[in-house]
Amino acid sequence: MKGTVVSETITIIPVMYRDGSNCKRSSAIVAVGEVTDAQITRLRAALDDKVYYCPEQLELTHHGYGAWSSFPIADVDHGWHEMFLDSVTVSTTPAGGFECPCDEVGEIEDFVCRVEAASEAGWSPIDPSSVH
Q1: Which neighbouring-strand residues pair with 10?
Q2: Is 0.90 surpassed by the pTM of this model?
Q3: 114 part of a folded domain
Q4: What is the pLDDT of residues 29-67, one digit of tens each?
Q5: Does residue 2 fall inside a structural domain?
């Protein structure tokens, strides 16, 4: 029908990069579908110390890049990000995308499986100063 806006349910997972000097950059991971309590439990179990992940292993953005002109600084910057599962929200968005400086990861179950696979392989942070 002309003029109809189709919405989809999305899960928004707040994330943050915090460098060794405590400079912070917040963002979000946006997944299609409503996350379940069981999926949050699985995510938490897969994260290092129930909060840390390496974005490159999940083909996600390292939020230090572009945040500061001095990035990366050896011995300050690292490959870990924090995922705030206690602050997850579920919303709707018009079909066609979610506009924010965030990572869109597809279906929530697929994302949970990717995090579990990365955890099983072993979290392996990439040193940003070795890449640039």
Answers
A1: 32, 91
A2: no
A3: yes
A4: 999 999 999 999 999 999 999 999 999 999 998 766 555
A5: no
